[in-house]
């Protein structure tokens, strides 16, 4: 029998990993990242100790896309419940921003493995079969 194990902290509270993502607008398109599982996702990553979500997304977009961000605003917060291996709940804190000036290169091989970056219109991104629903939810908020 395959039982779902919900991870909890020592006090019994739900253990939630925080992942900060961004809809990075670049003209009439947005940037998506194809991950090691062959899924498309919004660029971003996990909150590091001592960071606030806004700091995390600025750092992650610089690392992954090689871009500064302009006009950063909170777009959506969603708790994604799924067996992720190391956790069962990820809180997606999703921002929207404009692509700023280029300050580096794309991160094609990072801590999570190989990745690919591509621009899509929001409409085309919503049609992707391998873009998980929580990311589509954020795109619909636009």
Description:
This protein is of the alpha+beta class. The protein has a single domain (27-141), classed as Nucleoside Triphosphate Pyrophosphohydrolase (Alpha-Beta Complex). The protein is built from three helices and nine strands. The protein has helices at residues 53-65, 122-126, 133-141; strands spanning 17-26, 29-34, 40-41, 44-46, 67-81, 89-102, 109-110, 113-114, 116-120. The strands form two sheets. Strands 1, 2, 3, 4, 5, 6 and 9 form a seven-stranded mixed sheet that branches. Strands 7-8 form a two-stranded antiparallel ribbon. Strand 1 and strand 2 (29-34) form a beta hairpin. The longest helix has 13 residues, at 53-65. The model has no long low-confidence stretch (mean pLDDT 91).
Please identify the top-level CATH class. Alpha Beta
**CATH architecture label:** Alpha-Beta Complex
Q: CATH homologous superfamily?
A: Nucleoside Triphosphate Pyrophosphohydrolase
Q: First CA to last CA: what distance?
A: 41 Å
Low-confidence stretches: none
- Number of domain units: 1
Number of DSSP E strands:
9
Number of helical elements:
3
Structural class: alpha+beta
Encode the helix/strand succession as letters: EEEEHEEEEEHH
* Rg from Cα: 15 Å
Instruction: Give the rounded overall mean pLDDT.
Output: 91
CATH-assigned fold name: Nucleoside Triphosphate Pyrophosphohydrolase
**Strand portion:** 35-45%
Shape: globular
Largest sheet: 7 strands, mixed
Helix content: 10-25%
């Amino acid at each position: 029998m395959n039982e779902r194990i919900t991870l909890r902290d020592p006090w019994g509270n739900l253990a939630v990993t925080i992942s900060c993502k961004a809809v990075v607008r670049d003209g009439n398109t947005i940037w998506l990242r194809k991950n090691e599982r062959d899924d498309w996702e919004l660029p971003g990553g996990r909150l590091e100790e001592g960071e606030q979500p806004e700091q995390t997304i600025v750092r992650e977009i610089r690392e992954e896309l090689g871009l500064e961000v302009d006009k950063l605003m909170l777009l959506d917060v969603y708790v994604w419940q799924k067996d992720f291996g190391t956790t069962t709940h990820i809180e997606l804190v999703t921002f929207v921003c404009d692509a700023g000036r280029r300050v580096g290169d794309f991160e094609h091989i990072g801590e999570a493995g190989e990745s690919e970056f591509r621009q899509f219109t929001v409409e085309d991104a919503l049609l992707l079969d391998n873009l998980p629903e929580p990311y589509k939810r954020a795109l619909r908020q636009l």
